[in-house]
Amino acid sequence: MSQTWLIVPAAGQGRRMGADKPKQYLTLADEQPVLAHTLARLHSAFPSARLVLCLDADDRWFSPRWVPFTVWQRVTGGDERMDSVLNALHAMTADDNDVVMVHDVARPCITVDDLQALYQAAATHPAGALLAMPVADTMKRADDQCQSARTEPRDDLWHALTPQGFRYALLRRALETARQQRTLVTDEASAVEALGECPQLVSGRRDNLKITHPDDLALAAAIMAAQTANTPDRL
Description:
By secondary structure, this protein is α/β, with parallel strands linked by helices. It contains six helices and nine strands; from the N terminus they run βαββαβαββββααβα. 30% of the residues lie in helices and 22% in strands. The strands form two sheets. A seven-stranded mixed beta sheet has the order 3-2-1-4-8-5-9, sandwiched between helices. A two-stranded antiparallel sheet has the order 6-7. Catalyzes the formation of 4-diphosphocytidyl-2-C-methyl-D-erythritol from CTP and 2-C-methyl-D-erythritol 4-phosphate (MEP). It catalyses: 2-C-methyl-D-erythritol 4-phosphate + CTP + H(+) = 4-CDP-2-C-methyl-D-erythritol + diphosphate.
């Protein structure tokens, strides 16, 4: 029987937050850090999964009490996201066909329904899958002076979200190839696409917020409170 794996890159410094600690350790309304909320959401959907948590070697804020998984391991993160994920893949004892899902630590609003929908797609589509959201806004192309130069058609454009899930062997090959070619990829799907594969897009909820700027903390807390009030049994 195949095993489900979760990789959570959490080695970033989150400098755009302008805080005294990485954003994954900033607290939400209940004084629990973002990291703890994200891991709790993942555990709600996949309680028997194996977690690989990528942390900075000098991380002084992390506490194991925030990890709800029975089987988990800590690996050292790299300079870039792809380096952290590769470190995790190299440290895992996964079979080639095991499903590996990678989720941003700064997305604590992910829901069980979206997580399970992504898993089903990743487990059945040969090229894997990613949560994504169709572009709804008018898209503008700026010139070098930050002026609106033209309007871009938004047909077939999607915002990439996480998790993104792939078979272990495919994801490892894609990221190792990107490293060998010295190509910096910003998400796992782009590395798989570079192999000529086409991952499945799975339409996700618009409240799957990625915390990036200071005001996102209050927004994430409001989203999570609304989710709990509306669907308390599905979070």
